[in-house]
Amino acid sequence: MKLLLEKIKLALLKRTGIAQKKKCHETWISKGYRKMPRVAFVLQSHNKSLQILHVLPQLRQYQDAEIIVIDDGSEHEHTKRLLAALTGANEFLLRANDLFENVTYDKAIRLANGRYVALMQDDDDFDGIDWVDCALSLFSQHPDMAILGGKNGLDLDFVDERQWAHGGQSQTEGEFCFVTAVNRAPMWVDRDLFKRHLHHINFRFAPFQFDDYELCVRCWLAGLKVGWYNAGVRSLTAGGMRLYNNEFTREQTERNGQLLYNMYADRKEELHNRVMKARLEQGISTV
């Protein structure tokens, strides 16, 4: 019955032309949609709408950008709040049903039009927008760099048949260096290089955990580079994985740690050599 009434209503609107008078090409132009923005900010969020609203004004300071918020299975009040806040022509709400990061980030990269995509979390906080200009400058200096992390960089080592481990200290100080892997967030991706050489975030690591490390390893082995810089991004609140998924995170760590080892342990020397060569070319000490 409801569908029948809706059909009658729409038929009347079509006949009278009332709805058509509300839209025209000029109103579309006035929205200011950017077809090919330089940057796409992608924020994964689960019940953290207030945190997203906190950083939105700062992200909007970078005008040549689009903003994509992944609302991943949030309660209705958070979805409603995000829907009301994302009012710009270049601001989008991507709704998912609690799928976690692996699948949703991959989907968002495909939705984005920005050349450089910043994968972010709902607990990221920062002052100003200089960290964006810094990242774009580094991509310009290193055209074969497909991934740039702003949180910390690290080296990976493959220890035994069960597991992998961080090798050496994480890179958290300094300005820029090449590293074996970075973890989110922020994690910048050159979308053109990603589409041509990497294609997908590896769905074998779904729903989350270590898919960022695997992407970095695959990047190096594809002849591309992974870099780290100090983005100055800090945590605003407790991260969602620790907040909602402690036990699940431990389970995924064991499962995906072994998967990462099985995939790349026999290529660890090649991986190490590629990273060391890149550092030597940059004049960075490998000791």
Oligomeric form:
single chain
How many structural domains can be distinguished in the coordinates? Answer: 1
The end-to-end distance, rounded to whole angstroms, is: 75 Å
**Mean pLDDT across every amino acid position:** 89
| Percent of sequence in beta strands | 15-25%
Would you summarize the structure shown here?
With 287 residues, this protein is α/β, with parallel strands linked by helices. It has helices at 2-16, 25-30, 49-59, 76-85, 101-111, 130-141, 191-198, 211-221, 240-244, 246-264, 268-281, and strands at 39-45, 65-72, 91-96, 116-121, 124-125, 145-149, 153-157, 165-171, 176-178, 181-182, 187-190, 225-229, 234-235. Helices cover 43% and strands 22% of the residues.
